[in-house]
């Protein structure tokens, strides 16, 4: 049985707005169920362990999908989610791939988290896929190749667009823009129209543009695990 590690944010403050953030339910639920239903064993981790914060906005009626509805009724998965293991205890040798769901939270903690950075580099150097959707490609901000270049340098990648960030009126709130960071790290950044599903695979890296892209990213990851 293949094993996939999901890494979730612990960050819940949306900058200085007084509003809350965290991970986006669909970006966790859609990939989680797609992989679980195919017999993949999933372990959940976060920098601090325990219950990762859910972005309250992702619970709103407008953002419900079959996967979020399933999650809302799924006591077993909620229980597992409340007990994520600490990232520092994780060893890539125990897993076949790693998946990062988005939400704005990762921009603050996972982008800078030393354990996450080391883990991604370890997965990469051991020829294991790394998938990230929407804001989660933020995790590639500080990851490096063995030669010191950025991990995304020269790689085809995508992530939440400047236009999408503008549409949710958080351009001046976030610590950095995902699209700009990927480009400045040398990534070959491409995108589709705002809010369109779009996933890109280049070698071991699989990235998705927005919440609608979370299932396509999981499908690419599933293919890679075969």
Automatic annotation (TrEMBL):
All copies of domain DJ-1/PfpI, residue ranges: 26-223
GO CC field: cytoplasm
GO biological process: methylglyoxal catabolic process to D-lactate via S-lactoyl-glutathione; proteolysis
Domain of life of the native organism: Bacteria
Keyword S-adenosyl-L-methionine attached: no
Keywords, comma-separated and alphabetical: Hydrolase, Lyase, Protease, Stress response
GO molecular function: glyoxalase III activity; peptidase activity
Flavoprotein listed as a keyword: no
Family the UniProt entry places it in: Belongs to the peptidase C56 family. HSP31-like subfamily.
Protein name: Putative intracellular protease/amidase
Organism per entry: Pustulibacterium marinum
Organism taxonomic ancestry: Bacteria, Pseudomonadati, Bacteroidota, Flavobacteriia, Flavobacteriales
């Amino acid at each position: 049985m293949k094993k996939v590690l999901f890494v979730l944010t612990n960050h819940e403050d949306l900058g200085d707005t007084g509003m809350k953030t965290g991970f986006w339910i669909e970006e966790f639920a859609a990939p989680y169920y797609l992989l679980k239903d195919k017999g993949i064993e999933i372990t959940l981790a976060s920098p601090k362990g325990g219950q990762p914060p859910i972005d309250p906005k992702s619970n709103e009626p407008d953002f419900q999908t079959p996967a979020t509805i399933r999650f809302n009724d799924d006591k077993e998965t909620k229980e597992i989610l409340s007990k994520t293991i600490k990232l520092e205890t994780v060893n890539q040798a125990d897993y076949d791939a790693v998946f990062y769901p988005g939400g704005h939270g990762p921009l603050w903690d996972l982008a800078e988290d030393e354990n996450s950075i080391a883990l991604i580099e370890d997965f990469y150097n051991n020829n294991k896929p790394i998938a990230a959707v929407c804001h989660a490609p933020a995790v590639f901000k500080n990851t490096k190749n063995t030669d010191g270049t950025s991990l995304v340098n020269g790689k085809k990648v995508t992530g939440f667009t400047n236009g999408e960030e503008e549409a949710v009126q958080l351009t001046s709130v976030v610590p950095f823009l995902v699209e700009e960071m990927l480009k400045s790290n040398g990534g070959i950044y491409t995108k589709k129209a705002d809010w369109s599903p779009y996933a890109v695979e280049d070698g071991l890296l699989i990235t998705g543009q927005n919440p609608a892209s979370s299932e396509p990213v999981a499908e690419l990851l599933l293919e890679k695990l075969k």
